[in-house]
Design goal:
Layout lengths: L2 H10 L2 E7 L3 H9 L1 H7 L10 E3 L6 E7 L5 E12 L3 E8 L7 E10 L2 E9 L4 H22 L2
Antiparallel strand pairs: 1-7, 2-3, 3-4, 4-5, 5-6, 6-7
Length: 151
């Protein structure tokens, strides 16, 4: 594989999702980082979040339970790498079903008058199939977040 092919492969395994949510960056940041709020909106369509633990500090760990429609649970775990409330959150990402090195998720919140531009950058995704799965998952999570914020 030459350098161009390597760069292309890496680009394909990086996901960028943007969504405008009518709320403040502070409110969205808190919904993302406070367990009692996160459990109310987290999860792709048909997936619930019965439990989450968050130690919100650089080097602190988190665990998020994704309960699947069949009743099985997949745990998402990682470590916070950067915390800059209310504009940026960066953390590693692994799932209990994953044996590969951890992925990285960066959340950017940019105020836009009465709304916030939410940008999710999910990197180091091991396969193209997982890129597709994460894309659908993040869309579902952002749907849930927007719905939660507006109630």
């Amino acid at each position: 594989m030459n350098i161009k092919e390597t760069q292309k492969a890496n680009e394909q395994r990086r996901l960028v999702i943007k969504r405008v949510i009518f709320s403040t960056p502070e409110r969205i940041f808190d919904a993302w980082t406070q367990p009692q709020l996160l459990t109310q909106w987290w999860g792709p369509k048909n997936v619930t979040c019965p439990s989450t633990e968050i130690d919100l500090r650089v080097g602190g760990r988190y665990r998020i339970a994704n309960q699947m429609p069949d009743g099985s649970t997949v745990w998402i775990t990682g470590v916070f790498e950067e915390i800059d409330r209310p504009i940026k959150l960066v953390y590693s990402w692994s799932t209990s079903s994953q044996k590969q090195p951890s992925e990285r998720v960066s959340i950017f919140l940019q105020s836009q008058e009465d709304a916030t531009q939410v940008t999710i950058v999910h990197e180091n995704i091991p396969t193209q199939q997982l890129v597709i799965s994460h894309s659908a998952g993040w869309d579902g999570c952002l749907d849930g977040l927007a719905s939660f914020i507006h109630h």
